[in-house]
């Protein structure tokens, strides 16, 4: 027994000190950095991308869209992920650093407003949504439903979805706005928890990624204002930009991508890459099926 | 000689184990104090404890935890109101009234209750209790302090039952014999003699039960709705201190204000549990001296 233990120990030490091949010889790597919304998606892309390329390494880190741009300008990453377009301020910064950011739209992110199946309301305007989430409207009858209190469901404040919803619906994209979610809104630990509560509670209303839409709950059609068309959240409507609560997902490179960076972008835009977009609950920029 | 050395070593090891628990408590407290106090350097204590708004990731951030403290108190008080009478009555039945066969079954069932993980209790509550509470009381949502109290009462019950049962059973036979010999009925004996004699143990059981309830996180996070709003009744959603720490800790920036504020909440929680235990000790000490 003792002999076996010593043997095992020796083996362990030997295998640890065994030098890895390909450590520097010809091993290529790319760094991807930026939006936390896209991190999961990019992670899956990276895993599948390197699956049959043993000498390629892809590093994916989050930090936020702004962090990604900063890293791209400082040449500490090859691809920046962003859930918004590059700002003017950042463009001038890029020029000063002699970087020319090139934009690739790789997918879309749409938020669906869900209610219970028994709720008679099936459309809302953005301003009605804003009033509901800031508790200016508290009863369903004010928006054409039964005389019942509205139960507002939101994600926890650290969620990117929470931030997006706050900035684009509650504050209507106005950077100086100080509007907040009503303190009465229920902060749920996950999108699944929001879905579960809506499934069983006819008074509830909440927002989740489009992947959660199914026949057991009702997604609302949303319009920009009363005179506009109410749009149902489908992949087509998000893709065409008609559905108002959506945002594009971008990858940015410095100039025309070359070599491995080009291969990665091509992979992200390929059918296989776009299928992953769908799998991770985002909307692909072209029609694919799982 | 050899014996003496071994004796000495073992004695010291046991001593060390005893001291370690104190060391850990002190270390945890110091760590909480360090992070929490550095928060109060930048944020007024009064504004923290009595502030009504909890918007930790807004600009400017609001760190008012009054709603969270009230939430924790509501849930804990509710759970105690349910668990204490039920638990003490169950302990009395098991130790004094139940026939041997029934007692064994009941005891093992109660102990089994303690083995159910809190996250399981949480989602059982979410799937069954939450819709039931909503329909029974005809309230907008079942994600309320009341639902949380019921589920937490379940979790405190095993502690309360097993420890009070021990206390009741350790009441000397001679007390009961004396009471019965004086012509007291069985109920009078239990109420006036057994319960009185076992009271210190029962109070300790209740305090331990409260400790379990106030520190419980997972189940509470899943079924109390997490709305940081001061509730006007127990049938409204609340956000507890523990759920806030658990939900937000994962995404905060290390060393940032939000991160420190969560430690400050931990400190408040620690002070509350410490005072509960301290008061319990005082009561027990007084009883004993009489």
Which structural class matches the secondary elements of chain B?
Answer: mainly alpha
Output the structural class of chain A: alpha/beta
Distance between the termini of chain A: 53 Å
Please state the CA-atom Rg of chain A, rounded to the nearest Å. Answer: 23 Å
Number of helices of chain B: 11
What's the number of domains of chain B?
Answer: 1
> According to CATH, what is the class of the largest domain in chain A?
Alpha Beta
N-to-C terminal Cα separation of chain B, in Å? 47 Å
Oligomeric category:
heterodimer
Tell me the domain tally of chain A. Answer: 2
Shape label of chain A: elongated
Radius of gyration of chain B: 23 Å
The fraction of residues assigned to DSSP E strands of chain A is: 15-25%
Please explain how this structure is put together.
The complex is a heterodimer of chains A (290) and B (290). With 290 residues, chain A is α/β, with parallel strands linked by helices. Chain A has two domains: 11-108 and 249-279, Periplasmic binding protein-like II (D-Maltodextrin-Binding Protein, domain 2, 3-Layer(aba) Sandwich); 109-246, D-Maltodextrin-Binding Protein, domain 2 (3-Layer(aba) Sandwich), CATH 3.40.190.10. Chain A is built from ten helices and eleven strands. Chain A has helices at 2-17, 36-50, 65-73, 88-96, 126-133, 160-170, 191-200, 235-240, 259-269, 271-279; strands at residues 28-34, 56-61, 79-82, 101-116, 123-125, 151-155, 186-188, 204-209, 217-219, 221-223, 246-254. In chain A, strands 1, 2, 3, 4, 6, 7, 8, 9 and 11 form a nine-stranded mixed beta sheet that branches. Chain A has a two-stranded parallel ribbon with strand order 5-10. In chain A, helix 9 crosses helix 10. The N and C termini of chain A lie far apart (53 Å). The model of chain A is unreliable at 14-25 (pLDDT under 50). The longest helix of chain B has 41 residues, at 2-42. With 290 residues, chain B is mainly α. In chain B, strands 1-2 form a two-stranded antiparallel ribbon. Chain B has helices spanning 2-42, 45-50, 66-97, 100-114, 118-137, 145-169, 173-181, 186-215, 218-223, 241-249, 257-289, and strands at 54-55, 62-63. Chain B has a single domain (65-289), classed as MetI-like fold (Orthogonal Bundle). Helices cover 78% and strands 1% of the residues of chain B. At the A-B interface, strand 7 and helix 7 of A face strand 1 and helix 5 of B.
């Amino acid at each position: 027994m003792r002999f076996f233990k010593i043997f095992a120990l020796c083996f362990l030490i030997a295998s640890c000190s065994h030098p890895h091949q390909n450590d520097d010889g010809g091993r290529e790597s790319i760094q991807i950095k930026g939006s936390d919304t896209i991190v999961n998606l990019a992670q899956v892309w990276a895993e599948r991308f390197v699956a049959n390329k043993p000498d390629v390494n892809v590093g994916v880190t989050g930090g936020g869209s702004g962090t990604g741009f900063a890293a791209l300008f400082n040449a500490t990453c090859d691809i920046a992920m962003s859930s918004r377009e590059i700002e003017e301020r950042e463009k001038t910064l890029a020029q000063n650093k002699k970087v020319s950011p090139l934009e690739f739209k790789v997918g879309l992110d749409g938020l669906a407003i869900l209610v219970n199946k028994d709720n008679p309301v099936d459309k809302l305007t953005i301003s009605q949504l804003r009033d509901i989430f800031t508790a200016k409207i508290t009863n369903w009858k004010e928006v054409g439903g039964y005389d019942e209190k509205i139960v507002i469901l939101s994600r926890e404040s650290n969620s990117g979805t929470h931030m997006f919803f706050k900035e684009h619906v509650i504050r209507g994209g106005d950077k100086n706005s100080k509007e907040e979610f009503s303190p009465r809104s229920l902060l749920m630990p996950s999108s699944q928890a929001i879905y579960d509560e809506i499934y069983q509670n006819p008074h509830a209303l909440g927002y989740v990624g489009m992947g959660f839409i199914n026949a057991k709950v009702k997604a609302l059609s949303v319009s920009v204002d009363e005179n506009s068309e109410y749009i149902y959240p489908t992949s087509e409507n998000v893709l065409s930009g008609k559905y108002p609560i959506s945002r594009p997902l971008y990858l940015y490179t410095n100039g025309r991508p070359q070599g491995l960076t080009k291969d990665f972008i091509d992979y992200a835009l390929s059918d296989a890459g776009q299928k992953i977009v769908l799998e991770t609950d985002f909307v692909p920029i072209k029609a694919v099926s799982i | 000689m050899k014996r003496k050395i071994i004796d000495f070593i073992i004695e010291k090891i046991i001593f060390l184990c005893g001291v370690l628990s104190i060391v850990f408590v002190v270390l945890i407290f110091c760590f909480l104090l360090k992070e929490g106090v550095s928060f109060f350097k930048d944020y007024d204590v009064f504004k923290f404890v009595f502030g009504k708004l909890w918007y930790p990731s807004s600009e400017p951030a609001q760190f008012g935890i009054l709603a969270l403290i009230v939430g924790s108190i509501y849930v804990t008080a509710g759970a105690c109101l349910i668990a204490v009478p039920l638990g003490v009555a169950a302990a009395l039945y098991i130790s004094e009234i139940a026939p041997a066969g029934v007692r064994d079954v009941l005891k093992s069932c109660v102990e089994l209750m303690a083995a159910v993980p809190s996250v399981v209790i949480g989602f059982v509550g979410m799937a069954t209790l939450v819709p039931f509470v909503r329909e029974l009381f005809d309230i907008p949502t079942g994600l309320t302090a009341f639902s949380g109290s019921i589920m937490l009462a379940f979790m405190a019950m095993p502690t309360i039952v097993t420890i009070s049962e021990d206390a009741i059973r350790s009441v000397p036979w001679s007390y009961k014999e004396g009471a019965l010999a004086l012509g007291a009925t069985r109920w009078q004996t239990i109420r006036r003699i057994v319960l009185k004699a076992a009271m210190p143990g029962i109070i300790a059981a209740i305090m331990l039960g409260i400790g379990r309830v106030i520190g419980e996180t997972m189940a509470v996070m899943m079924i109390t709705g997490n709305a940081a709003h001061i509730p006007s009744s127990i049938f409204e959603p609340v956000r507890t201190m523990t759920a806030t720490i658990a939900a937000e800790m994962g995404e905060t920036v290390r060393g940032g204000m939000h991160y420190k504020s969560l430690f400050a909440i931990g400190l408040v929680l620690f002070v509350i549990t410490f005072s509960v235990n301290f008061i319990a000790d005082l009561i027990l000490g007084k009883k004993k001296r009489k």
